[in-house]
Amino acid sequence: MSVAGMAASATQQRREARGEVLRLVARTPTVVVGGLVLLLWVACALFASRVAPHDPIAPDILHKLQPPSVTHPFGTDSLGRDVLSRVIFGARGILVVAPLATLFGTSLGTAIGLVAGYAGGFVEEGLMRLTDAFLALPAIVVALLALVALGPSTGAVIFVIGLVFAPIIARTVRAAVLTEANLEYVQAARLRQEAAPYVMFVEILPNVLGPVLVEFTVRLGYAIFATATLSFLGFGIQPPAPDWGLSIFEQYSFLVGGLWWPVLFPALAIASLVVAVNLVADGLSQALDR
Amino acid sequence: MLRFLLRRVGLALVTLWLLSVIVFLASHALPGDVGRRILGPFADPRSVAALDHALGVDRPLPVQYASWVGDLLRGDLGSSLSFHVPVAQLLGRGVVNSLKLGMVAFVMVVPLGVLGGILAALRRGGLTDRVITIAGLSATIVPEFVSSIVLILVFSVALKALPISAQVPPDADPLTQIYHLILPALPLVLVLFGYIARITRSGVVEALDADYTRTAVLKGLSWGAVVVRHVLRNALMPTIAVVATQLGYLIGGLVVIEVMFNYQGLGQLLYTSAQQKDFPLLQAGVMTVGAVYLTATLLADIGYSFVNPRIRLGGAE
User: Fold this and answer.
1) Is A32 part of the contact surface with chain B (CB cutoff 8 Å)?
2) Per-residue pLDDT reduced to its tens digit, B191-220
3) d(CA B173, CA B206)
4) Taking CB atoms and an 8 Å limit, are A140 and B23 in contact across chains?
């Protein structure tokens, strides 16, 4: 067989292996359930204005805190806004912020991990100490600190969550790079006197994409967790936006009086979304491990 | 052993120092001066300048950093801008309260998590394993404030079994205090359960597959004796280390829980100081969290190395 033919058949095999992984993932029941719930929320976010029965923001004080009924299946909140419509519109904010934050954190972390793992020496030691310092703080505390410095805004939340995730991803990528750096193709590239950025990003990066992809999906679940928590604490998306975490913060004092509907439905929305993303991430990482 | 100890302590100190730089820079990134923030927008510029000078915030950043670290090392944490009392006094009370809440959560979650992990590992691949793994994973990923709502609705509103408020009079007897802390601790238990169960499970699975377990089975020991004497004794070591590192997550969770249940702990102090831009309190609070976390991981590392001779003797370094 010619060299070109061997290369072609290797590519073919790799494509088949990848297809096999996808088929495995798609057949796991937990992944199917997670995927369907995730799709439902994406659809809500995309078609919110067509699906939602009422305006999510306009107050209607005369009909405040109405229990679930035919006109308001999820009831109304303390300003008379339809809870169902707010839950549907609320999918938008979180499904934009969380993936962007994860993308930013994964890119930054991958870059740090590549440089640390490939450069070694003082650069590696310095970068790893810095990530240790960040990891010595709970994510929420780092986020509070950074949001105080930046002021609350959607952009700041994306930046902060990315910043919190970057050290975690950097450690995974560095570990993967350390094993790659000794392989022949890297030494060959070095002997060809390729520039360091070329070796890192063109030679090594494609070979560590597997762990990076797994980290991305796992982190996405945590990003939703963090986005919702920061909204709840009032450091994220600002009122009167129909955000889930924010709605819970605004309405949870009514729980004591037994007014559960303005709070429980956004809470269930958050719970179903994070669990769905997590089920998909878990299935994907198990399939890639095989 | 001594070299290992010194290296670990040294690394922790370097990390703490870097943390102080990050905290200092973050709290000085905000534009606008401190005197203006305290005196309000209508204050006379001269009195703002005078206050800035009195507080020392008109000096260059490196000088301010040096004097801040010097004060920290001498135990002088300054006084809170929003509460007008010494930061040390606020933090002291907050740490004690948070410790109580954290202890209640830990006492509940550690036995549950370890037991769940052992059970899942012994039934590996079976239904019990899948249920514990998926339930644990889901409980871990659901934010504390979301699970709190369901728990409040079930235990407090519907069953009326647990009080919704965590704050009790400070002179209440310990049992009453614990009773009030159960509901706020439950969401933390849910978040930590998955982690602890997962680590225990993988430790037990590894020990089950080890050669010494096969030897123990082949020499005719009963299954119970194999599990207790050979598997668990080896498997629970990594769990100890992980439980300590979860302290960081616990403190993060405390911020949300203490805000939600209006409990006067370290978490709520951090939240209030961040909202009010109360920098002396925020800086000291964040440094406290970092120091507590680093001490806990350091102690876990040392404890782990005592039970694991491979690390103690420098083989696995």
Assistant:
1) no
2) 889 888 988 898 888 888 888 888 888 888
3) 45
4) no
Which chain A residue lies closest to B267 (C-alpha atoms)? A141
Asked if residue A251 lies in contact with residue A261, where contact means CB atoms within 8 angstroms, the answer is no
Place of tokens 């728990």: B151
Best to test chain B binding among A28, A127, A137 (most B CBs inside 10 Å): A137
CA dist., res. B278 & res. B270, Å (int): 9
Peptide bond connecting A240 to the previous residue in cis, omega within 30 degrees of 0: yes
Å from B310 to nearest chain A CA? 22
Q: Where are the alpha helices (H) located in B123-210, listed in sequence order?
A: 127-141, 144-151, 174-209
B289/A141 touch (CB, cutoff 8 Å), yes or no: yes
Strands (E), B243-291: none
3-class secondary structure per residue, B13-44: HHHHHHHHHHHHHHHHCCCCCHHHHHHCCCCC
How far away is chain A from the Cα of B224, in angstroms, using its nearest Cα? 31
* A179, A261 Cβ separation under 8 angstroms: no
Contact (CB, 8 A) for A210 and A286? no
Please name the residues in contact with B88: beta carbons below 8 A apart, sequence gap of 6 or more: B75, B76, B77, B284
Using one digit for the tens of pLDDT, what is the confidence trace for B226-247? 888 888 877 877 677 667 767 7
Chain centroid, CA B91 distance in Å: 15
pTM: 0.83
pLDDT per residue rounded down to tens, chain A (290 residues): 455 565 566 667 766 766 776 777 777 788 899 999 999 999 999 998 888 888 888 888 888 888 888 888 888 888 888 889 999 999 998 999 999 999 999 999 999 999 998 888 888 888 888 887 777 777 888 888 888 888 778 888 999 999 989 998 998 899 889 888 888 888 888 888 888 888 888 888 988 888 888 889 889 988 999 999 999 988 888 888 888 999 999 888 888 777 888 899 999 999 999 999 988 888 887 777 65
Q: B258 contacts in A (CB within 8 Å)?
A: none
A-chain residues near B290 (CB < 8 A): 133, 136-137
Contact B157 A267 (CB under 8 A): no
- CB burial string B119-142: b at 16+ within 10 A, e below: bbbbeeeeeebeebbbebbbbbbb
Residue B259 and residue B158: Cα distance in Å, rounded? Answer: 22
Name chain A contacts of B144, Cβ cutoff 8 Å: 229
Pick among A148, A219, A238 to test the B interface (most B CBs inside 10 A): A148
The predicted complex's ipTM stands at 0.80
Contact: A136, B19; criterion CB under 8 Å: yes
Contact B15 A140 (CB under 8 A): no
Residue of chain B whose Cα is closest to the Cα of A152: B275
Q: Quick check: A124 and A81 in contact, CB under 8 A? A: no
Residue type, B26: A
